[in-house]
TrEMBL record:
Keywords: Signal. Residues 1-19 form the signal peptide. It comes from Malus domestica (Apple). PROSITE patterns: FBOX (PS50181). Residues 81-127 form the F-box domain. It comes from the Eukaryota. This is F-box domain-containing protein. InterPro entries: F-box-like_dom_sf (IPR036047), F-box_dom (IPR001810). Pfam families: F-box.
Amino acid sequence: MLYLLISFVSFILLSKSFTHHKPMLQTWENNLRLISLKFWSGSSSFLQKNWISLQPITSKLKKMVTSGSNVEGQREERETSLSLLDLPDLALGCILEKLPPSGLFSMAAVCSSLRESCKSDHLWDNHMKHKWGTLIGPAAYRQWQLHVASRNRTRHYCLKTRKKGLMESLAAIILPSTWTTLPQSVTCVCNCKVKGSSHSLPVHSIMSLYLSLESGKFWFPAQVYNREHGNLGFLLSCYDAQLRYDSRTNTFQARYSPYGRRVVEENIPWDRLRAAPVDTPPYKLHVSDCLHDLKPGDHIEIQWRRNNEFPYGWWYGVIGHLELCNGNVNHCRCHYNDIVVLEFRQHTPGSRWRQMMINRKDNREEGNEADGFYGGVRKLYNDEEIARWKRLWPSQVLE
């Protein structure tokens, strides 16, 4: 093929050099035309025959060029890209602090390094205070610790049971059946699946507490205003209960435990709940520390229960004037008297529930089986607490 090309070019040059001898070279030109036609026809047939065999070579060359450019581009991209884990700890911490709980939970599933960072108590403590700060008090944290201890004992029992079962199985394989008698397999009562992974969430972490609250798996103690859907017998009162959150409705379920029966209430909104303001169990008398400071017009809560078998509830009232006092602020001497008048103004004047008198020097339970028993008193200093009670005021005066 190369030889034909060289011959063709040489004949062209030769013809150009003898252009002034046209008559003599006319036959040469005709011959050259024939040669050129044969050359191009031969070359075209050669290319057509060999095009199929050349295609793989050209495609390979193209792939080599493009792959080389892609490798270079990926290398440059890797060199210029910055991973989240390459950030300084302070910058990464600032980013994680901006994430909502769902974002932190999702980020914890990315890798082991982010999992450790996203489980930090510091991050979850902010979310706990923001959403659950008004409900989770000291009593709830104590119950959570008991809940964690119970879960740990259950996990330990399941691990011990599984380990014992494994050793007995090995003994049954190695030793003859006449040497040992294996007991029936023990089934864990909790049907738990114990995993030995080091990546499991610590049950004592704040993240674990938050997720247990959100999922409704943890019942916690708190107090409910106007219990049992605003039953007239509980208006302007607040009772202890065990609560569970329902994320679908953003409400709560409450379990009350009065004497003789168990009451369950559904769909309780957030504004009817609070953490216990004092660390006093519902069956214990609260030791009052404000009796000597009480004066007419003060807002108070006082313990009351039907009888000794029932738990105390907290009832809202105000300090009133003694019968001999005309109510004049400049001449009132009620705060110097040992007798303190409690007024429950949601009841009509003359009602047996309207007033109650206690002795400020004697902190004890007072009352009888007919009117119930009054216990400890706590004075309300917080305006928000007082405003909350007023928002719960009944639409009509009670008898």
